[in-house]
Fold this protein.
Amino acid sequence: MSVELKRTASVLEAAGKQDVAKGLRERAESIEKGIWEHGVAKHKKYGDVFAYEVDGYGSQVLMDDANIPSLLALPILGFVNATDTTYQNTRRMILEKAGNPYYLTGKDFSGIGGPHVGLTYAWPMSRLVQARTSDKDDEITASLQAVLQSSRLGLVHESINVNRIVDYTRVWFAWANSVFAQTILDLAARKPYLIFGEGASPYVIGEKASRKV
């Protein structure tokens, strides 16, 4: 919310609505300050982490859900840089079963699920967000391969039974397929060799791409 309020404020400023923009920017800064002051918990294993929920009385829920917005997607949303220490601590926590009750692993698939789909169905979309927030080639490749192997009909499903890959929800989930496209474009610009092969130049829509020979 704080990020979108700031973006909206910038649009309003460009349109000459300075007073309204000022109010939105102040509210955005207040929300951001509140998150850093009250939404960060000290975990005995992971250190300072972002809580999924807080109740205002000192209690926190430490988990993550596959939906976006999510804690895993915070850099994509623009709230923090992917290298931020608190985010990195949070990322380690939510990508482990010990830190996130909805991080699900099985013989066929693994990833983050959520309370609304039960404890056996992980979302391929979470693996795509994992790839977009990683700088490690092996982690990115493993995440993409997991999604590709689970998309046996050629499209990304909503969720996959981690122990039975042919058991899924939604034959075609537009949201997840859109995130897949965003992930490929992100990697084409950021790590083109993972998509096009060794020696490939970054590809950005609207820009000419060249391939090194």
Remarks:
- Strands lie at 40-43, 47-50, 53-54, 60-61, 103-105, 110-112, 121-122, 159-161, 164-169.
- The chain has a mean pLDDT of 94.
